[in-house]
């Protein structure tokens, strides 16, 4: 068997896997996936059909496997098994307890399908892969898995939620449309209390009850939410880190008293005691004038251009108050 035959055999096996995991897939999608022509995909599909694989061609939609037909599991490569082991580690730390348990159960099934040598290899590798942040989710409600269920089934969810600024507990009835992970997991949902879409952090959710009430499927998606937010705000995202120990307590208080005037959105305390603050601002120079007095206590995470504005202001201050004094000599006091 030459290299060309091996390449085609690998592609046919991969085609079988895709057909079993996707409801429908087009020839164009498969051609892009394998970097071949659609004519090659047509030929591969005919080869699979001639081998007795029941592939259904849906006019104008693509290909699918006959409902109920399954092939024996394809053996995983060692690299694929390690990738899934990594996913298990991430799920155990970055989702909730219920999801971590489901992921672990799936990994047990994967291990059962592995060769003994590969199974032993995973046991050896596992201790060398650790996810240390953001810490165990064991003390959080099983919000992630319940919200996923509610999103797909369009169920209204009642959540207990702690307000970002005050920590005041509230009860919200929400219609969730999606989840995303940044520093924390968030759920985007239509809030019936505010009658608008809102962004809820899962670590601030104290309780979750998925009700029997159904809501009408919404056309909004996560991407549309981001686009709408960008249009509504027409502002730039800014992330800074602030070390309160580097300035006077009065300056720390001033920062918290005035941050709302500069587009502050939310903040979190990092492990070293510093604060990471998120802003949406319409003018970077305007924000820079506010940040300059906190020099030495502020680190710019993004965008880099904010640092340029601060550098320019610092040079102007130096030229006006320090450099000029060196040119003229110290001011004599009377």
How would you explain this protein's 3D organization?
Pfam families: HTH_11 (PF08279), WCX (PF25583), WYL (PF13280). Residues 8-63 form the HTH deoR-type domain. One of its GO terms (molecular function) is DNA-binding transcription factor activity. Keywords: Transcription, Transcription regulation. This is YafY family transcriptional regulator. With 334 residues, this protein is α+β, with helices and mostly antiparallel strands. The protein has helices at 3-21, 27-34, 38-50, 78-94, 97-113, 116-125, 143-153, 222-233, 249-258, 284-291, 304-328, and strands at 55-58, 62-65, 155-162, 169-181, 185-191, 196-201, 205-214, 236-242, 264-269, 275-281, 298-302. Strands 6-5-4-3-7 form a five-stranded antiparallel sheet. Strands 9-10-8-11 form a four-stranded antiparallel sheet, covered by helices on one side. It has a two-stranded antiparallel ribbon with strand order 1-2. Strand 5 (185-191) and strand 6 (196-201) form a beta hairpin. Helix 2 (27-34) packs across helix 3. The longest helix has 25 residues, at 304-328. It is elongated. The N and C termini lie far apart (98 Å). The model has no long low-confidence stretch (mean pLDDT 81).
Distance between the termini: 98 Å
Instruction: List the secondary-structure elements in sequence, H or E.
Output: HHHEEHHHHEEEEEHEHEEHEH
Average pLDDT metric: 81
How many strands, which pairing sense, and closed or not: the largest β-sheet? 5 strands, antiparallel
| Overall SS class | alpha+beta
Shape label: elongated
Report strand %. 15-25%
Keywords: Transcription, Transcription regulation
Protein name: YafY family transcriptional regulator
Organism: Dyadobacter chenhuakuii
GO molecular function: DNA-binding transcription factor activity
